[in-house]
Amino acid sequence: MKKISRRHVIVSLASTATFLCPAVLNAATTADLTSWADIPTDSPVGLSRILRLNSGPASIDISALKPGEVTVIARPNDSDDYAGTGQTQFVAAMRKDNDYLIVELTCPHKGKAIGLTGDPKVPFACTKRGRYHSSEFDSNGLGVAGKSSGDPMIVPEHKLSSSNGKVVLELA
Ligand code: FES
Known about the structure:
Bound molecules: FE2/S2 (inorganic) cluster
Number of strands: 13
CATH topology: Rieske Iron-sulfur Protein
């Protein structure tokens, strides 16, 4: 895994598309962070739906996402990187106006799950709350509060391609 950089925030679209999966889901719900005090920290919250896939490479058609919408993909992964999220890699794909933010919902602080807040300015927050955690991230995937202030979210190995109006996210 690698952390996000400016280079990753705006992902350019290539000219070819491959296999398309029709299941595109808008996952974000409006969440009240004050109710997150004692929630489980091994899976994201603030989700209405999640796209669960098998491990290994995946291609997901994210064309249907509207600006501000988020879809979340989950895949099993036995890497130690995912010990804090039940050996599951959660990836969020958020449509911005003219680009997409692709980030892992694993906190760069101590690896707990990151949830969706439903707040367009601060759409991501760590499920581990309290004085020594409580990271929150803006729509560029940068930490703006809590222990990850100033730190970027983790970016999965991925590629975006666009063809004939279809936008496909390929996860390695
Ligand atoms: S693990 Fe997320 S803020 Fe500590």
